[in-house]
Give the backbone structure.
Amino acid sequence: MVSVGRNAEGTPFPEPEGFGSGLVDDAARRDAALPDFDWAELPKGVVRGEFAAPSGTLATISTGDPGNPRVVLIPGATGSKEDFILMLPELAGAGYFVLSCDIAGQYESAPAGPENLVPPRRRYDYELFRDDLLAMLDAEEGAVHVVGYSFAAIVVQLAFAHRPEKFRSLTLISCPPEPGQSFRGLRLAGWFSRWVSSRVGTALMIWGIRRNVARVAPKRLRFVKSRFAFTRRASVIDIIGLMKHTPDLRRVLAAATLPKLVAVGEHDLWPLALHRNFAQSIGARIAVYRGGHSPSETSPYQISRDLIELFDASVSA
């Protein structure tokens, strides 16, 4: 049981939020002690692969017994499957088969794109990303635990709305918490985001990553920068444009009875109040971790702990 402490003035600290966020346990200690390491080097037992999606070949990594319940982890714009590499062994060790992929146009899935569709299309759109994910979920029988990060959290919602029977649980990490022009609620740039084009928004985002605004460790920064040599800028531009038209699926998600989790860093791009409102509106638990927009990188062991609890809850759901 967690003991709720008091500050110097005797005022109680707030209760930890869902799944023990704020706990000082082994997972929190492991996250606090994370070293800087080479993110391109996969952990033991994690293997590379490929998946033939409608938009083209997607690069994957996976681990665990393929006969175990499946977990699919989807990264966001300018990200990659490696953003989850510390989580994969944890989830596999708990009895799951875990797979992640680069989404179309990103990193080692850069060749995948709208020109490969039948019939070909000109732009990356929501349907492209949704259908790629659904094809991956349909690759095996049964429902899957699905985790979407940032932009991919929107894609995951769209896939759920289209094929809810394929989902065993639903986790949204750093999900844009408002529909419509989702950038309007950003802490710093929200007030002028409506006047910024997708092309300029992409340039600003990439500039911030290259300038290490998030202050990530040197080896992490080196890996993040290296991905830009592969990622198609057109795919990022289109994604930024899509996020200005985020669909409102709150009622669909609220009506769903499967286990749901909203996971977010306490210093995310959007204020915590918006994330809490979003989680409440869809009937999801919320977990808040130290760090910013990338808790899968900065709090991987705590998120893994909470996901395992969420997955276990799905057995009795």
